[in-house]
Queue: 4 jobs
Job 1
Amino acid sequence: MLSSVFTKAVQWGIVEDNPVKRAEPPKGEAVEVSYLEEADAARLLAALHDVPPQYSAMVQLGLFTGMRRGEICGLRWSDVDLEADTISIERTLQYIPGKGTVFTSPKTKRSRRCIKMGADCVQLLQEYRKHQKAERFKIGSEWVRKVEIEGKTVENDLLFTKWNGAPIDPKTVTTWFPGFLAAYDLPPVHFHSLRHTNASLLIAAHVPVTAVSGRLGHAKTSTTTDIYAGFIRSAD
């Protein structure tokens, strides 16, 4: 960051040299990835029958698609095509202190992507949509009908919300997740580990790394190989 600041200062003629270029940066530590083994992933899916439908759907989407938490929370039904079996990732949702929940553009250009769904994922969303419609009917006039997304007020068709249809705080599911895992004696991984689990299962199934990278929305294929090098070697 400092190097980019000084480089711009050199371009603007404020300073003659970028002193940061002479620094020796420390070596980056290897990224440790936590994920679920295949048997534990199956146990996780079985345990989800006993949890609230919204949490169940969010966890399954993380496992089936490898989407990031913020991408899942930012989904709208207009992003889902149950006939073409696709999900379009067009935005992410994050909580900013003082501002609340804010919809923003995806992390990188490649993060804006279209994911093909399998039959299990399609069935999941079909059932969840019926559940949400029933809940919305119960709430009636208290349901939030309009939401602001990236500066535009639109019809509220969010998949995952608070009880009244307002955008959900992404931390809600990650706060709930550890207690769920402990209750069913599952490994203490993070919600983001579902994304890593999805990638590890794809690689173990010999899906090309370029395809895995595209589904995860990594900016470069090298990012995928750097993070999942161990999985790629095991697949070999």
Job 2
Amino acid sequence: MTNAETAAATRSVTTPALPCFEKQKLFSIGLRCGRLANRLIIFANFVALAEEQGHRLINFTFHTYSELFEGTHENIYCRYPRPRRRSWLDVVPGVAAAFRKTRILYHLTRYTCLLNERFPILGDAAVTLRELPGRHGTLLDEPEYQEKIRPARIVFVYGWRLRSPGLMKKHGDKIRAYFRPIQKFETASRNAIDPLRRAADVVIGVHIRHGDYRGWKGGKYFFPAARYAGWMRELAEQFPGRKIAFFVCSDEPRSADEFPGLTVGFGTDSPVSDVYALARCDYILGPKSTFSQWASFYGEKPLLHVHGIGEPAKLEDFRVSYLDWD
């Protein structure tokens, strides 16, 4: 894909001018939100805020996945910025693994978040952040939020729909470096896409989510494989004279027979290498999902979320995600 195509597909995101506080703050995320992509997204948004304002961040809710990423696999506190020296908890064999398995640090943080909200014995020095009521989502640069955290030294985060897309775009390179997968998954993602690159001019990633989507929101975003094949043909027709290949990843086994007449490669045996393989594609298509949102952000590749079975797949509707709300 050319630079012009990428620029045309990228959403315009305004970077907010946030205040620089006199005192560095410690942010601590205390609410686990869903699975891999959800936790990456909430973590990344606060990494962006910490980078912008010079704060520190710890996130015990990420322990389930911490060993899979360069920034966290030897970082028991899941701290940002990464510590210059490893904690003794990481150095002593078995200790870090035990803490991750028991989730004791997460549970302590979670209950501290809630207790601080109900019994603020530290006054303004420690605050608990939630989404603003009555909103679809809350921007971290909103004046109300910035004013609330101004006097605090410790900020507990107990919410999910908290975003800062402008800062995600501004500090994207540092965020991507922190969440680079460990070599095992980096290699698997590359091996999934390289053969398709050799066979085609354009590689389009397709995320088929079935499993839990059969029942989620009454099956609103559950689409049969035949409909995905239809969207894939629609996209191929928009690249006249060019060879198109598709990388298909799914939470259920898929077969080439479901995509007749199309050049198709299939996902790996891991959600981590799948999402980073999607990030290596030129375009990404799928149902509404944070999984494909993360792939779009990480790879800076245009994404189209299809919201209905009758919705067409048009190239002009693809946009790079900066992890705001779909």
Job 3
Amino acid sequence: DAFAPCPQRLGLYAVLPDAAWVARMAQAGVPTVQLRFKSDDTDAIAREVHAAVRAVQGTPARLFINDHWRIAIDAGAYGVHLGQEDMAEAPLARIREAGLRLGLSTHGYAEMIRADAVSPSYLALGAVFPTTLKRMATAPQGTARLQAYAQLMRAYPLVAIGGIDLDKLPGVLASGVGSVAVVRAITGADNPEHAA
């Protein structure tokens, strides 16, 4: 059973720390946004997820919720994004039956094959370049390897992630991915709307 599809080209994909950022970037016309809200407080998580879902209403933005799949289902989000560990633990059938799209993180061939087995809505390929945001277990993939991955997984919408900024964008897009995810290139910019 495949997950609900999403567009082959998800375009600019902004990964954002809270609902206020989601609102800002949805208003700025960013086509795909992800709420990556880190907290141990379940109530705070629920508030942020529900606020983020409200924030994209009336905009064309597609909202993915990182990790918090239960609350994403309750709130009626467009989709959820899971890492490999979360993928193993989450009840994927439940997420699929709720009609949510599923994005999965992959780092290399083995993880791509594992992700392909569950027919997600899109695959994230990373980290393309070194990133300071997460301790990565795998070395940066670089654009040559990204191109090989993009060729292999071309049946899916593909999102390149990891250390991508404006200068690196042309090389990344040349790989054939239909989307580029950025974090600091937007949240760390002097003018995030302009950067987007």
Job 4
Amino acid sequence: MTVANRPSSADPKKLLTKEFKAVGLKKDVFQILPEWWEEALGHPSGVYEVRGFVAKHFGLEIGPNGQLRQRLMPHACFKTRTDIDITAVASARAMATAVARIVAAATVGTRPAGANTPWSGGLPSAADLRRTVLDNGRPWVSLSDLLAVCWEHGIPVVYLPSLPVSKPKMEGMVTFCGSRPVILVTKKAEQPAWMLFVLAHEMGHVALRHLNECDGGSIVDEKVSEDGVADPQEIAANAYALHLLTGGEKSVINLKSLMKPEPLAKEARRFGHKYHIDPGHVDLNAVRNTMVNGTNPWGLKTNLWGLGTNALKHLDHEPASSVMCRNALRQNVDLDALSDDSFEFLERLGVL
């Protein structure tokens, strides 16, 4: 008698890969799962354990059919400049929100010891905040200053440029989680000058009370820029950022003539010391606003952004954005409050 072979069950990794793709995650998402995932898939219930981890840490949920699906999120204010469909950033927003929840829950301080650092309820005006930083002997408002201010006011800052999503992601976002705002910068900006304006802009949304302070309420900035801005809240957040960084009077800087990277860095340093503006911001602001023969050169072949990026290399060395953000986070969260899985997850994402 011939006995037919029983059909083999579906490969659990292929099954999960298909589900990940359906919710907008990349194939390499397995690289940031905890070490136990591969061994777990060798057991009948393993796929359910992995789904449970992904649902919690990626901001998803498990549907009635037992598979991963997008979670219904609270209302968000999407700030988009292109013809992008706002649903395209759903995966990025969901995962960023899940990371924000983990960090917010572990945020601690020293007053009183071991207790959560309370959300102060607001941020100072740009003028007051700038004055405080300069009065403390700082030459200008730097990225390290902004990070310190945010954490002191109970606002975690998370640098998250490597979201494993297959669809577009935002550059910056602020969300209300665990009774506090959390700022996430997802723009890849290892040079602090590139991150400086993005963080100051998101701080502007908080200071100006644009954020809906309900759990999960968010402002999602697809692109943080001064170009082509029509949204009143974006205009206001930009104005806050520029006043904070430059004092307002020197918010638009331009070059009288094009120059090579090293002389540009030297001029940015001189200008920065004179007007108390971070030289990196001077550099990027100048190349953005410079006109050639009365014309903005971005439509020409002149690569001013390349010039600005190369000039940054000649400025005083600063730690990378990721290093500063990780250090600040480690100093302000209770690492013991994180589960082993969450700790490893944040490490693999580069958050810790």
